[in-house]
Design goal:
The complex is a heterodimer.
Chain A (H helix, E strand, L loop, with lengths): L3 E2 L4 E5 L4 E3 L2 E2 L7 E7 L6 E7 L7 E2 L2 E6 L4 E6 L8 E9 L8 E4 L3 E6 L1
Parallel strand pairs in A: 2-12
Antiparallel strand pairs in A: 1-4, 3-9, 5-6, 5-10, 7-8, 8-9, 10-11, 10-12
Chain B lengths: L4 E3 L2 E4 L5 E6 L6 E7 L6 E7 L2 E5 L6 E5 L5 E5 L8 E8 L6 E2 L3 E5 L1
Parallel strand pairs in B: 2-11
Antiparallel strand pairs in B: 1-3, 3-8, 4-5, 4-9, 5-6, 7-8, 9-10, 9-11
The chains are: A mainly beta, B mainly beta.
Chain lengths: ~120, ~110
């Protein structure tokens, strides 16, 4: 079963507008972490934002915020005031495994290609 | 920049050959993970090294192997290359229970 689902293969947004990228996840572990990464055409995965499963508040980092709805198992990324440089692939990922000396791995979705139009 | 450096950036190999990819982790990070990203897909976890020991492995055959050195840099070795091994290989370094920082990747083409 797919653990991270990103249902939007591509999204378009006008410059300066806000956009929401969807992510749903599946896990039976009560402790997990959710991440969003940006991947420009150069290939590097750039960390954007993190939400822990026990965090009470939604995470925010500058223009990025994470709309975390635990009961619905969704962790949508909101980008405010889009810029041309935001055009890239965006990946949602979930960390599995015990951080106490055990293996940690990130499970990624298939990504959403965001295009910001001038 | 994340401080994670991978080499080479691009590589072309022939089917059946062996390849070694290298990763220098960010200062202070004792954990390195390797991922394979096929075209149009999200990255897939290959394995992870923590303090020079492999401590987790994804669904990859034994011909994918690795090393971590005392300075926490790492190598990914792939033997008997197959056409399907063509992908972007990403290295990520982190301390346990913190976000992973990725390098720019190595694009491997197997012909």
């Amino acid at each position: 079963a797919q653990k991270i689902t990103q249902t939007q293969p591509g999204m378009f947004v006008q410059e300066k507008e806000a956009v929401t990228l969807d992510c749903t996840y599946d896990t039976s572990d009560p402790s997990y972490g959710l991440f969003w990464y940006k991947q420009p055409s150069s290939g590097e995965m750039i960390f954007l934002i993190y939400q822990g499963s026990y965090d009470q508040q939604n995470a925010t980092e500058g223009r990025y915020s994470l709309n975390f709805q635990k009961a619905r198992k969704s962790a949508n990324l909101v980008i405010s005031a889009s810029q041309l440089g935001d055009s890239a692939m965006y990946f949602c990922a979930m960390r599995e495994g015990s951080p106490q000396g055990g293996s940690e791995k990130l499970v990624f979705g298939k990504g959403t290609k965001l295009t910001v139009n001038p | 920049e994340t401080g994670v450096t991978q080499s080479p950036t691009h590589l072309i190999k022939t089917r059946g050959q062996q390849v070694t990819l290298r990763c220098s982790s960010q200062s202070g990070h004792n954990t390195v993970s390797w991922y394979q990203q096929a075209l149009g897909q999200g990255p897939q976890f290959i394995f992870q090294y923590y303090r020079e020991e492999e401590n987790g492995r994804g669904n990859f055959p034994p011909r994918f192997s690795g090393l971590q050195f005392p300075n926490y840099s790492s190598e990914l070795n792939v033997n008997a290359l197959e056409l399907d091994d063509s992908a972007l290989y990403l290295c990520a370094s982190h301390r346990l229970d913190t976000e992973a920082f990725f390098g720019q990747g190595t694009r491997l083409t197997v012909v």
